[in-house]
Specification:
The protein is mainly α. The two termini are about 30 Å apart. It has one domain.
Length: about 60
């Protein structure tokens, strides 16, 4: 790819968006199903919202 900082492929162990999504989407899906199954879906969604807001404020 022209302009790429890598010669042939990314370095081993580099966390890219496709790898990150492959790790987080199944995990969040399984946790959501478990929260729904046990009846804590609302609390789980509140926890996700608070975590997202904290990350938003910290990364600013």
């Amino acid at each position: 790819m022209p302009g790429s900082p890598y010669l042939e492929e990314p370095p081993k162990g580099l966390l890219t968006w496709p790898v990150l999504l492959r790790m987080t989407i199944p995990t969040l899906f399984a946790l959501t199903i478990a929260a729904w199954w046990t009846g804590f879906l609302f609390e789980f969604l509140i926890l996700l919202t608070i975590s997202g807001l904290v990350l938003l404020v910290v990364r600013r």
